[in-house]
């Protein structure tokens, strides 16, 4: 562990919090200092389940973690409806913030969170882990080479997973008072982020939901699709699909004029230790169209650390710069979150308008 590691606290003991507790313990420049739940019993159960060291402070309330002077940064995996309240408290308590996605119910809420972080000089980052995978950087390098892929014409992404009856009855992601954005917020966030990432975070001109969306009786989105359209500097079309009703997929396809790349596990790689994608360039049909002149090339990227550990490491690096060197918080990560939230809001608005186009 590095000298003077960034000390993390976690409020909320949801399932994803266990993954982040492990990530913090594996990050070379971070350490887990405190966890808090709504009751001491829940916090103790979480600590025992994940075999947290005795040095981790266990609190029976969120406020105690916020008030702990030994906590530098806070990870918040609470239901989306609670993000604004606790994120503002965290920022105002000078805690750097790792906020689970979706970041907020809408961009107006997120703007309040980002403003609070900026005014208090603390770093903001959302919990989109795949952006930190070394495969993602390798892909970006390939896409930036105009001779291999060329201008991007089409992006397609899916994030789906068939859920159980128990999920549809009791999970927070189908409760309008807890996670009102449903599958769009939980899974669609990844698809939107991937499309924006492919376009170097240029916002689309129009966003249009497709009429195949499904809601539960409470009005929460269980499945939806949308189309994103860019006009300049070159026309690009993206389609996204997210669903709690289909078999697990995490597909990403990016097609340009000269080549294409395909991933089938872009959100969570099949393995922690390596990740791959298929790259095809100069593909044509052979005579009589009985085959192709090339087969996809598999590009494999080794991963020294799991992507969630790299995410924690990056946030901790930024926090160390602020804390130890007087650096300013990076604007990169809040800008990425805000653009993702803007497009997500547009998809939601288009659904509410009967699938009419929404201009950005």
From TrEMBL:
Residues 145-261 form the GFO/IDH/MocA-like oxidoreductase domain. It comes from the Eukaryota. Transmembrane segments: none annotated. One of its GO terms (molecular function) is nucleotide binding. Coiled coil: none annotated. InterPro entries: Gfo/Idh/MocA-like_OxRdtase_N, GFO_IDH_MocA-like_dom, NAD(P)-bd_dom_sf. Pfam families: GFO_IDH_MocA, GFO_IDH_MocA_C3. Residues 6-125 form the Gfo/Idh/MocA-like oxidoreductase N-terminal domain. Belongs to the Gfo/Idh/MocA family. This is Putative oxidoreductase. It comes from Senna tora.
């Amino acid at each position: 562990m590095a000298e003077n590691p960034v000390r993390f606290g976690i409020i909320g003991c949801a399932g994803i919090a266990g993954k982040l507790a492990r990530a913090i313990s594996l990050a070379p420049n971070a350490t887990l200092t405190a966890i808090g739940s709504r009751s001491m019993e829940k916090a103790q159960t979480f600590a025992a389940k994940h075999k947290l060291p005795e040095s981790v402070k266990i609190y029976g309330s969120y406020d105690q973690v916020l008030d702990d002077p030994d906590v530098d940064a806070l990870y918040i995996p609470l239901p989306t409806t609670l993000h604004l309240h606790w994120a503002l408290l965290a920022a105002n308590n000078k805690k750097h913030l790792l906020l689970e996605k979706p970041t907020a119910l809408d961009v107006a809420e997120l703007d309040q969170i980002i403003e609070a972080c900026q005014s208090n000089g603390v770093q903001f980052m959302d919990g989109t882990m795949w952006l930190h995978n070394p495969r993602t950087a390798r892909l970006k390098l390939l896409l930036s080479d105009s001779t291999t892929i060329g201008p991007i014409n089409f992006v397609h992404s899916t994030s789906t997973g068939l859920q159980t009856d128990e999920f549809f009855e009791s999970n927070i992601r189908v409760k309008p008072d807890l996670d009102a954005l449903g599958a769009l917020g939980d899974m669609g966030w990844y698809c939107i982020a991937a499309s924006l990432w492919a376009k170097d975070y240029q916002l689309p001109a129009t966003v249009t939901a497709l009429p195949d969306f499904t809601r539960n009786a409470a009005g929460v989105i269980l499945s939806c699709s949308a189309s994103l359209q860019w006009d300049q500097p070159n026309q690009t079309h993206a389609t996204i699909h997210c669903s709690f009703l289909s078999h697990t997929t995490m597909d990403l396809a990016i097609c340009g004029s000269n080549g294409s790349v395909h991933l089938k596990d872009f959100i969570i790689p099949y393995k922690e230790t390596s990740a791959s994608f298929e790259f095809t360039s100069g593909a044509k049909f052979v005579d009589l169209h009985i085959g192709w002149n090339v087969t996809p090339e598999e590009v494999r990227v080794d991963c020294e650390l799991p992507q969630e550990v790299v995410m924690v490491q990056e946030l901790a690096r930024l926090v160390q710069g602020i804390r130890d060197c007087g650096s300013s918080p990076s604007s990169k990560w809040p800008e990425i979150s805000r653009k993702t939230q803007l497009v997500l809001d547009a998809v939601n608005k288009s659904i509410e308008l009967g699938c009419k186009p929404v201009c950005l």
